[in-house]
Structure formats: C-alpha cells, structure tokens
C-alpha cells in the first residue's frame, strides 16, 4: 500500500488496488470452480469451463493457480473458511467467541451455529474430495495421513467446554471431543439435510439439543 498524508498530517495507508483486484479475481475463480465441481464432478470439469464461468481468460487461471489440483485445494480451503484469508478455524472470530461463552450450553449453541455455516459449504464437496483423491494420488497427497484437522478443532472446543460450570463432570475432554467430532461430521449432516430433506435449521436445532443433553448438567 502507498502512504499519503491524512488531514492530521499523519501517514495513511492507501488501499492497494492491484492487490484488491487480484483477491477478487481469485475469489471469482474459486467460486466458479466450486459451482462446476459440485455440478459436474472434478474430473469432468476443465479449466477452460472454469475460466468461462468466472469471466476471465484461462491463462489467468493458470497464472493464479498453476493447475487444477491446486485450484481444487483452494476450493476446499475456501469452503471451510468461507473466504480466501489464511486464518485457521481456531483463530476465527466465531470460534473464539463460542469458546468465550460463560456456559457450556451457550458455547454449544454458538459452536453448532458456526459449524452449521461451515458444513453448508463443505458437506456438498466431501464426496468430490473422496472421488478425486481416489483417482489422483497427487490430490490425495494434499491431505496427508495424520491427525484430522477437524478433530483438532473439536478437541479444542471440547477442552474449553469441559471447563465450564454447567459441563457434565462425568464427561472428560476426550469423550466430549468424540461427540462433537461425530455429531458435527459432514457425513451426518449430509444424511439429514441431503438424504432426509431436513433444513439446516432443523439439523442445527436437533444437533444442539443432543449435544447439550449429553454434555451439560442442566438441559431442561
């Protein structure tokens, strides 16, 4: 960013228009790729189709992402985060605000609401990830074996939750993390919302009630 003088004589950073254009272009390409991957599948979608949907030249797609595999990884990452900012889930405002709730029940309500937003974006592409990874070893390598990042997030939430005054004393952090990991899974979300036709709101209400019943002392 360039610096200019403000009315008080202090240097004020001027927005970097080129960087903002680059960010918008990246977001358009990722959004177009997500739409086409969900509609057609990863293998059946070409970079030219993605460029046409995004309204950019295909050379721009190659310049920004190099190849379709890298673009697919960005589609997954943006679906999880909701934007292209490199901020981990546990550093997101919604996650920190949920953990800061004074009660376990309050944290669960805020946490499930935040996870619902993520699952609404991520769950539809989970089958795509599995299918693409099964046919392309380089895509599979983008998600190496090791601790599941989703479990890491739920364990952090569980650690905060089990310290609250209304948390059930007979449920430790590991058990709470397992319950969060299982009930807030993309697979279970898809069973209810896609397969059984529940609304996301109905899923949120049921999941929240189930978790409060199992993790909180006062769940009337």
TrEMBL record:
Record carries keyword Secreted: no
DNA-binding stretch(es), residue numbering of this chain: 46-65
Annotated TM spans: none
UniProt keyword terms in alphabetical order: DNA-binding, Transcription, Transcription regulation
Residue intervals of the HTH tetR-type domain: 23-83
Region (Disordered): 1-25
Pfam families: TetR_N (PF00440)
The protein's name: TetR/AcrR family transcriptional regulator
Organism of provenance: Streptomyces sanglieri
């Amino acid at each position: 960013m360039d610096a200019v003088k403000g009315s008080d004589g202090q240097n004020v950073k001027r927005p970097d228009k080129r960087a903002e254009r680059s960010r918008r272009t990246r977001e358009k390409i990722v959004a177009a790729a997500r739409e086409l991957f969900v509609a057609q599948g990863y293998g059946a979608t070409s970079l030219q189709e993605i460029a046409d949907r995004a309204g950019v030249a295909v050379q721009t797609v190659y310049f920004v992402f190099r190849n379709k595999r890298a673009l697919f990884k960005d589609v997954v990452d943006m679906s999880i985060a909701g934007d292209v900012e490199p901020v981990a889930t546990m550093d997101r405002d919604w996650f920190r605000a949920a953990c800061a709730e004074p009660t376990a029940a309050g944290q669960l309500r805020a946490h499930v609401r935040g996870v619902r937003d993520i699952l609404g974006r991520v769950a539809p592409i989970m089958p795509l990830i599995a299918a693409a990874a099964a046919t392309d070893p380089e895509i599979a390598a983008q998600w190496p074996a090791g601790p599941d990042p989703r479990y890491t997030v739920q364990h952090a939430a569980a650690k905060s939750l089990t310290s609250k005054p209304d948390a059930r004393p007979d449920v430790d952090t590991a058990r709470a993390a397992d319950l969060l990991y299982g009930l807030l899974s993309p697979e279970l979300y898809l069973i209810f919302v896609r397969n059984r036709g529940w609304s996301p709101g109905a899923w949120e209400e049921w999941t929240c009630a189930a978790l409060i019943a199992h993790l909180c002392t006062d769940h009337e």
